[in-house]
């Protein structure tokens, strides 16, 4: 198993070393957070073992994975560094960020209320936001502005403009709005909106975000669609009364959101000159693997590798669990909420062939 997969990993790596892409810039949630949450006082962390078990040196980095995330693979395939550094990581400087930077934060969403879910859960509304919140999307945009200023000081006005304009942007966000906020019934959004109305609300938030980064100079953007969010192990577990299958209500919300997202993308491309916003499909890809795991060398599509795989993530997925599987490459999911490195690699390859294809 190990050897064929290594071959698979290495063959496409040299890919297209493109001089045209100066940097990879990342916004979003835990699917793409390369370590920002390590630097804030949230409980949503993964900078301890067995996270990072299959990372270089077996090092936990704050990635919610056994290894690398899709933006890391994409960066490498574009001839850029094999890791996209987290903006808040003090080990890196603007010199590194000029070639790639990640503003993402695990637990965040398009909806401001999503980044405060833990505040709602643990403090019953008391205002301790600076303590427990993860980084809301508007603040990721604030960091992007600060980055632009630092880049101008470091590289000069013209070069900074070139980097911002020619970089590839990867956006991956939205899962938490449904799973950690709306359907979890903790913030009141479920009383305020029907699911359809909430989808529209999130699309409006996505539009605000996309217009904001457009006006700040971003042009080449890959917006990752929602996956089959009802098939995450945690959602199967909470669906146990219904037989433990995928939660079809959640999957339907993801599909409907994706349809609306595609309409938004068409509309923005038609109205914002030079905006090259592209849709990265992942929903069908994940279901294909779930339907046909053996052709990917995968044996378990239901539970995560870490601990029982049924509900553990973050601090519950830790080195004191004897049940953690020996070979994550046989699993789709690393913990109860996040895919393994192998799946991230497959998703990165698909993104390079779809939304990013025309940029490279
Ligand atoms: C989200 O929060 C930011 C910062 O407070 C604010 O500017 C923005 O209007 C909020 N968005 C919504 C939809 O409330
Ligand atoms: C949270 O905030 C309170 C009051 O502002 C402070 O006393 C406490 O140390 C903070 N806790 C963390 C983990 O930052």
UniProtKB/TrEMBL annotation:
InterPro entries: GDSL, GDSL_lipolytic_enzyme, SGNH_hydro_sf, SGNH_plant_lipase-like. Residues 1-18 form the signal peptide. It holds the Pfam family Lipase_GDSL. Gene3D superfamilies: SGNH hydrolase. GO terms for molecular function: hydrolase activity, acting on ester bonds. Keywords: Signal. It comes from the Eukaryota. Belongs to the 'GDSL' lipolytic enzyme family. This is GDSL esterase/lipase. It comes from Zingiber officinale.
């Amino acid at each position: 198993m190990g050897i064929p997969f290594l071959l698979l990993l290495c063959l496409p790596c040299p890919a297209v070393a493109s001089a045209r892409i100066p940097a990879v810039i990342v916004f979003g949630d835990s699917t793409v957070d390369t370590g920002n949450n390590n630097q804030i006082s949230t409980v949503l962390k993964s900078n301890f073992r067995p996270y990072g078990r299959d990372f270089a040196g077996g090092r936990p980095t704050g990635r919610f994975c056994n290894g690398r995330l899709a933006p890391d693979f994409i960066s490498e395939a574009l001839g850029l560094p094999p890791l996209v550094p987290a903006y808040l990581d003090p080990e890196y400087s603007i010199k590194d960020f000029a070639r790639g930077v990640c503003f993402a934060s695990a637990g965040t969403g398009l909806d401001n209320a999503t980044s405060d879910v833990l505040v709602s859960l643990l403090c019953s509304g008391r205002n301790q936001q600076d303590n427990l919140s993860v980084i809301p999307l508007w603040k990721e945009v604030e960091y992007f502005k600060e980055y632009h200023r630092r880049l101008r000081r470091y590289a000069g006005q013209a070069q900074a403009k070139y980097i911002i304009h020619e970089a590839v942007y990867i956006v991956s966000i939205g899962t938490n709005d449904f799973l950690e906020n709306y359907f979890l019934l903790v913030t009141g959004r479920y009383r305020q909106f029907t699911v359809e109305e909430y989808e529209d609300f999130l699309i409006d938030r996505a539009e605000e975000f996309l217009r904001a980064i457009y006006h700040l100079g971003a042009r080449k953007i890959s917006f990752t669609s929602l996956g089959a969010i009802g098939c995450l192990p945690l959602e199967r577990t909470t669906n146990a009364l219904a037989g433990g299958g995928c939660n079809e209500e959640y999957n339907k919300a993801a599909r409907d959101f994706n349809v609306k997202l595609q309409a938004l993308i068409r509309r923005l491309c038609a109205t914002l000159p030079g905006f090259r916003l592209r849709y990265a499909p992942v929903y069908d890809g994940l279901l294909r693997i779930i339907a046909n795991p053996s052709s990917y060398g995968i044996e378990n599509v239901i539970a995560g590798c870490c601990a029982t795989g049924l509900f553990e993530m973050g601090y519950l997925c830790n080195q004191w669990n004897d049940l953690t599987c020996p070979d994550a490459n046989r699993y789709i999911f690393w913990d109860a909420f996040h895919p393994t490195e192998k799946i991230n690699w497959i998703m990165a390859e698909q993104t390079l062939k779809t939304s990013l294809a025309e940029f490279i």
